[in-house]
From TrEMBL:
Superkingdom, natural source: Eukaryota
Region of interest (Disordered), residue spans: 275-310, 350-372
Cell compartments where the protein resides: Membrane
GO cellular component terms, A-Z: endoplasmic reticulum membrane
UniProt similarity note: Belongs to the ELO family.
Compositionally biased region (Basic and acidic residues): 287-307
Protein name from the UniProt record: Elongation of very long chain fatty acids protein
Gene Ontology BP term (one): fatty acid elongation, monounsaturated fatty acid
Biased composition (Polar residues): 356-372
InterPro entries reported for this sequence: ELO_fam (IPR002076)
E.C. code: 2.3.1.199
Bilayer disposition of the protein: Multi-pass membrane protein
Species classification: Eukaryota, Metazoa, Ecdysozoa, Arthropoda, Crustacea
Length: 372
């Protein structure tokens, strides 16, 4: 046990000191992953257990105006991030095939790093999606998939900002933020009242768009396993794993919500029940409480507590895996090559020195997928 703890501590210190991007030193929440993990754990506890208990005997809040303002802010901030990402990176400077991280003080790269941090910060603002569900007593919208997605994203993005705030991985952030523009526009229109319902026929395509996003990110990232590119292979592994995991979960939702539903007898549609698993809110036009919730809460409390424990365990597992990675090496080459010319650097992805790390990574991913 003492040997394990020593390896854990040594790996953590090596990761945080030797592998970090020094440009983000001093940025809010960037000194350690534990504040982010704690915030995510508190979010899970509140939306799955504490919040429903506090609201059990209270009337739902009327939050239509707040939700409209929130959606407008999300749309505007997403447009801004996409614009900055295109102008300073992907429109003229970045390659879709291989884009190493430029750790220099180049003005464009500093802006890209800052946009990565703002993207990370936006993952916390999206917690309001679920908090609004709690305050409006829409507990049936707080699915495990919805909570898993929202809680994993800040923790996962933190590692990217800390070690690779730029380069190949920012493609996912760009694509995801573009999806947010469309998604929160939909939720904004839905929150503005029944007169806009006729314009929301494309609701189910939000889920399709999410699935296309994960497939695109997977193939864009997986190409790094077959070419020489000086980009951290472990980051590519994590991105591919998350893409496959969320594609599977979203696909299952799509089948349950839109394919199997067609085979059932016609039932009253609840326009507020949207893709709760998605990054955002449901159709906010309906503010009526969930009448069945009060009868179900008492029987669900124990199940919810177990679910909270499993989600927190999953998040902490990511922290443990990261410390192992820190001890065994994050980068395929010892130097953080600057500039696009590093595409030409000779990096042996399949060499023996990395074999034990790759085996451990595969084991870690299998364990995490089982936990989920």
């Amino acid at each position: 046990m003492s040997g394990f703890l020593k390896n854990f501590v040594d790996g953590y210190h090596d990761l945080m000191i030797n592998k970090r991007d020094t440009r983000v030193d001093g940025w809010l929440l960037m000194s350690s992953p534990f504040p982010t993990l704690l915030i995510c754990a508190c979010y899970i506890y509140f939306v799955k257990y504490l919040g429903p208990r506090l609201m059990r005997d209270r009337k739902p809040f009327e939050l239509r105006s707040a939700i409209i303002v929130y959606n407008i802010i999300q749309v505007v901030s997403s447009i801004y991030l996409v614009y900055k990402g295109l102008v300073h990176a992907w429109l003229f400077r970045y390659s879709l095939r291989c884009q190493p991280v430029d750790y220099s003080d180049d003005p464009d790269e500093l802006i890209v790093a800052q946009m990565c941090w703002w993207y990370y910060f936006c993952k916390f603002t999206e917690f309001l999606d679920t908090i609004f569900f709690v305050l409006r007593k829409k507990f049936d919208q707080i699915t495990n998939l919805h909570v898993i997605h929202h809680s994993i994203m800040p923790a996962a993005v933190w590692w990217g900002v800390k070690f690779t705030p730029g380069g190949h991985a920012t493609f996912f952030g760009m694509l995801n933020t573009f999806v947010h523009i469309i998604m929160y526009t939909y939720y904004l229109l839905a929150a503005m009242g029944p007169k806009y319902q006729k314009y929301l026929w494309w609701k189910k395509h939000l889920t399709t768009m999410q699935m296309v996003q994960f497939v695109t990110v997977f193939f864009h990232t997986a190409q790094l396993f077959f070419i020489e590119c000086n980009f951290p292979k472990i980051i590519a592994y994590i991105m591919c794993f998350n893409s496959v995991m969320f594609l599977s979960l979203f696909s299952n939702f799509y089948i349950q919500a839109y394919i199997k539903r067609r085979r059932l007898p016609a039932i009253k549609k609840d326009d507020d029940h949207h893709d709760g698993l998605n990054n955002g809110l449901a159709n906010h036009s309906d503010t009526s409480p969930d009448k069945a919730t009060s009868r179900k809460n008492s029987g669900k409390e124990e199940k919810e507590r177990r679910g909270v424990g499993k989600m927190i365990t999953t998040i902490m597992t990511n922290a443990s895996a990261a410390c192992y990675i820190g001890q065994n090496g994050l980068y395929q080459s010892k130097d953080k090559t600057k500039g696009a010319d590093s595409c030409k650097s000779k990096v042996n992805y399949n060499g023996k020195p990395n074999g034990h790390l790759n085996n451990h990574i595969n084991g870690q991913f299998a364990t995490q997928k089982k936990n989920l």
